[in-house]
Amino acid sequence: MVATRYVTPLREGGSLPAIVEGDDQGLYVVKFRGAGQGPKALVAEWVAGELARAAGLQVPELVRVEVSPALGRNEPDGEIRDLLRASAGENLGLDYLPGSVTFDPAVEPAPGGGEASEVVWFDALVQNVDRTPRNPNLLLWHRRLWLIDHGAALYFHHDWARAAAAAASPFPQVKEHVLLRWADDLPGAGARLVKRLGPEVVGRILAALPDAWLPAEPLLRDPAAHRAAYAAQLARRLAAAPTFVEEAVRARAAIV
What we know:
By secondary structure, this protein is of the alpha+beta class. Helices cover 35% and strands 16% of the residues. The chain folds into two domains: 3-95; 101-253, no CATH class. It has helices at residues 39-54, 78-86, 113-125, 163-166, 186-194, 199-207, 223-239, 241-253; strands at 3-9, 18-22, 27-31, 62-67, 89-95, 101-102, 138-141, 144-147.
């Protein structure tokens, strides 16, 4: 999809995401490669988001968005102009959900135990630290929960030298998860979801990553090496499911 119009920035995002119109006349929330968080945030957004969709969770459609260097030439805000120039090429867009509202655990109806368990299990799998009561990154749209903003997941890719050792982490941050108190069937959720995340699914998701989001670094010299490293790490993480499920069950027992 090609971006045709920069509509408005979303200032609440640390990476200056924006609503952008595409050449299909749809509106998308676009995360930019040139933002301070860099392309790894886009990789995490794509991989975690597509894994969640494959697992049967609700995630807005993800698309690759081609941004022209000329897109922001008429923007009065210099920071936005610089961001768009730095993001020329492929970026990441999420389908805009008009009328959606942020999930508030204090006022919204409680989610079902099965759904809550699946979201908690999935976030423990991808080590998503950004689904807390303060910042749930969940939307309510058409009376359903939608998962957004996975840029903080897969944090192992910030230190590949230690990634393999970190794969067996019990993910203690799960105690902060916004849905943990309702997650009353974590082992059952894992049994359901792990069947949907086989190697062929992971491989398909990784194959769709743009090469430009996988620049060379000391341990990973080309995009193929990156994809192989992500596949191996996700396989290790799936194998560690009993460990992070045990931690989540223990954390839940402490609050209910």
